[in-house]
Amino acid sequence: MTLTKLRGLLAASLILFAAPASAQSIDELYKKALGEGGVVNFYSSLANINAAKILPQFEKRFPGIKINHVESTADQLATRAIAEMRGGKVIGDVFQSNLDSVVRLHKQGIFEQRLPPEAAAYPENLKGNYWMATDLVFLVPAWNTALIKKDEVITQFEDLADPRWKGRLIAEPRDFQILIGLAKHKFKSDDKAVALLKRIALNNLEFHKGHAALAELLIAGQAAVCATCYSHHFPARITKGATVGYMLSEGVGDLNSSAVFKNPPHPNSAWLMARWLASEEGQKVYAQGGRLPAHPKVEPLDKIKPVKIYPVGEDEIDEFPKYEKMWKEIFQLR
Question: Is the pTM above the cut of 0.70?
């Protein structure tokens, strides 16, 4: 039995174990939450541009409960949560950020070890026994349509190894998840993934930190192709007239996920929010807020979801140091 399947069975058993509490409807839970002070403390790296569209919809759906959005970077939120726990206080109710941060916090014993009943709708690679994916971001190649010919459009990662791109590629130096996605999911072989990236490296990629910066450099014509851009960065820019295209035949997915703090100050409110985040209703709001929802039945509003998905999940996180080291060696990064 694989580790992923074992986790799935454990998650299922935990859901059954929690059945008496979770069998109630979300509206019944809402009535209990109203008696907890009317607030839920949401530790989240969700960008304000998205939060401003998403979080008010929760407050509209559940009048009388306000979200205290503690917004910061994933690392800063994790540091804060650990410091509070070590100080003997639990202030957060729900934590939401990249899966890497959620897993690191779990190792500190911070989260509840159960899932909301809405977890049943999700595939095993989008949930653990304490976390649920809320949304996904995809790393894909993108290009300036004014700088490449129609027959040069990229349809797979292998196309980046074509010598025609020598000196014409840009990328983010920290995107070693590309290596993980290719090794674990596309090729199911470290050797094949490394071989491809070594061929791509021969094209002398120019590295810049920040995916938003990469998108702007591409639009400005500073490079023909971006090897590791976010798919969700382009629809709005294209609407405004940017001459860019991006690959949706395949992509490497990073997961953002949520978990409920152990012994939260507002337990019913915490689980109300966790259930709403995982529900079709909440996931549709995430789509309206410009995110790519994790729920398998909810599609994003823009075309940002690749056909073939190579998700970097919980099983791979412990191997991050190994793959980051390999990535840096391939591209001679410090």
Answer: yes
